[in-house]
Design brief:
This protein has a five-stranded antiparallel sheet with strand order 1-2-3-4-5. A hairpin with a 2-residue loop joins strand 2 and strand 3. The longest helix is centred in the N-terminal third of the chain and has 18 residues. The N terminus is likely disordered. It is an alpha+beta fold and 148 residues long. It has a single domain, classed as Aspartate Aminotransferase, domain 1, CATH 3.90.1150.200. It has five helices and five strands. The chain is globular, with a radius of gyration of 17 Å. This is DUF1801 domain-containing protein.
Amino acid sequence: MNAKKAAASKGKSYEGFTDEERGAMKEHAREMKAAALGAAQEAAQLEKIAEMPADERAMAERIGAIIKADAPGLTPKLWYGMPGWAKGGKVVCFFQPAGKFKSRYSTFGFNDSANLDDGAMWPIAYALAKLTAAEEKQIRALVKKAAS
């Protein structure tokens, strides 16, 4: 059953994807093609980071440096147009800049391939308004655990 029919059957209307969501999906398709052609993922990631506003760029660069130092087994790549870091081809963690979806904060998040399980419930995304030494310390610990 498609999304429109599912929404109609529940009495709700389906508005479709936002322009930002469609853009992210198109970027993901381009990324998959680039990966298939053997394009350098780190260079593509750095290029995307360079396009960000200064405050988001600084956070993304710092997170990249933390991951390189504390989880060297993770490889940089783009994930839906955002910086991501993968293990065995699967994205473990990512940085979503606030401007990507016009939100009020950036997000540092983890996918299900991250090794963060802690009981029956655990956080997988963190809002980032700015990146101070305290946040860096927490990110270091999370990345080490996620990549283990």
